[in-house]
Structure formats: structure tokens, C-alpha cells
């Protein structure tokens, strides 16, 4: 609906309706400027939001890459620790056998000399 100034009632601040927006005759330029300014501000905010979203996605991707590298590092460390543990367990399983062998060998040398046998008995309870 459009009302022209000639059709509008006379008086101060004649009202014009253009494109369903009320526009006062005296302030038409100011209102149009305000509308343009609001649209420009909206476009500026949209651009800022796009930039911010792009930065956020980049940070997220960088963090994901960091975490993936950390996972790989921890998996490698875990594999190494498992290997070391299995070696230690295998060594611990051999200890009783090695201890027996050492005690038998010590027992042979302990009994060869009298004085050493006495010290060996006191220390090892033989």
C-alpha cells in the first residue's frame, strides 16, 4: 500500500507508507539510512560469524590432530611397557630355577672349606 503526500492529510509530519513501512516525509532519508545501516551491520555480523566459525573449526581440527598424535604415542608407549613387562615376568619366572642352581653351586663351595661352610650356614641358613 502506498500513500502519497498529496493523498495524506495535511499537518505536521505527513505520513507516507511505502512498502508497508511507515516513513515520515521529513525523516525519510534518516529512516532509509537507519535501515541501510541495520542491513550493513547485519552483513558485518554475518561475516564476523563466518570468520569466527572458520577459526573455531580450525582450532577443533588442530585439537583433534593433537589428540590423535597423543593416542598414537600412548599406544606405542603401552606396547613398549607390555614388552618390558613380559620380559620382567619371564625373568621372574626363571628366578627360582636360577636361585636353586646358585644355592647348589654355593653349597658345593661352602662345604669344601670348613670356615666358609660355617659363614654360609650363618648367612643362608644351610
UniProtKB/TrEMBL annotation:
Keyword Flavoprotein on entry: no
Main location group: nucleus
Record-linked InterPro entries: bZIP, BZIP46-like, bZIP_sf
Pfam families in alphabetical order: bZIP_1
Highest taxon in the source lineage: Eukaryota
Coiled coil: 24-87
Domain BZIP: 39-83
Keywords, ordered alphabetically: Coiled coil, DNA-binding, Nucleus
Cellular location(s): Nucleus
Gene3D superfamilies: 1.20.5.170
PANTHER family linked to this entry: CAMP-RESPONSE ELEMENT BINDING PROTEIN-RELATED (PTHR22952), PROTEIN ABSCISIC ACID-INSENSITIVE 5 (PTHR22952:SF175)
Protein name: BZIP domain-containing protein
